[in-house]
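User: Quick sanity check before I run a bigger batch. Here is a single chain. Can you write out its predicted 3D structure?
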Amino acid sequence: MASPPAPRPERTDLSRGWAKWRDRKARFAPLDFRKLANAAALWRGFRAADASGKSNSREALSPMQAWPMSLSVEPTTSCNLRCPECPSGLRSFTRPTGMLDPDRLSALLSGPAGLGRDLVYLNLYFQGEPYLNPGMDELVAIGKREGLYVSTSTNAHHITPERAERIIKSGIDRLIISIDGADQEAYSAYRVGGKLEKVLEATRHIMDAKKRLGRRAPHVVWQFLVVGTNEHQLPTMRQMARTWGVDEFVVKTAQLDAPRDDHPLLTQDPRLRRYDRDPSGRWVLRNPMPDRCWRMWQGAVVTWDGQVVPCCFDKDATHGMGQAEDGAAFRQIWHSDAYHAFRESVFTHRAGIDMCRNCSEGTEVWA
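Assistant: Done. Predicted structure follows.
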């Protein structure tokens, strides 16, 4: 079947540049005096933690004196695709699977102890396909009621014209659409079980709904996960993004669990991968692995069932810090001894933490 037609005339670089500038500006819109003060406290604490980790005397890490600035909350672990490097696609989770209840998110964000008072950025994504959750638009609306910048990432297989209109009306600020090939063969080499045609149709539905409703948001991003089977299509994908009129096109390098010489997803172009051979010939992450992590310091992840984990690389929630039924419970966990001990381990010997050894923090992720 032929691919659906592009929705409008080719987008100019200037037009996309303005869209990108508006999106970056929107990220700062939630900031008020309280949140600015919290961000400053986070940065001061991070600098102090970094200095203590580098000290010859290995001074004890000072307790956290601020609240997270960003939060990723998982709408679901379910996914319709079978991507080979993804635990959702491989159905390899050992933790419980399910769907996030909007009431749980509201309890986390709202009220006197709600995290909405301090957060700036809410990412409604961790594992799974967010739009399989029938309450996804309500989840977005909860974040927007708290004045947050809200984003998500989707494989775009469940976006009909009607759903596209609801997505626009939900108020979501940033919609990342995964599109990993310019034709079906290249696309499905990684997005196993997926249809490129559905992604293009969804893009058209979203762009048409934005125009029909007179909305600038969401900022629509095509994200191209570059792997060995599609790297030759990168120039074509850049041109397709202009033709289809999306606001931004980004190229993301792939995380591989076991890179090797004959790995089909390992790119030939070294600029498009995260890994190089070490002197012994082993493929290793191209990462100096400094004993610090801003991502972990300023944010956290909450799974669909309320488990707090310190990082989005903890995909199976093996480093669970506790169960957050509401904002007050999260705040106790954030300042708990267990969380403090984990932060201290990051700032003293990050390479000793299993999930950190294949982490993108400190690595070039965007090509």
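Residues 33-54 form the longest helix (22 residues).

User: Great, the batch can go ahead then.
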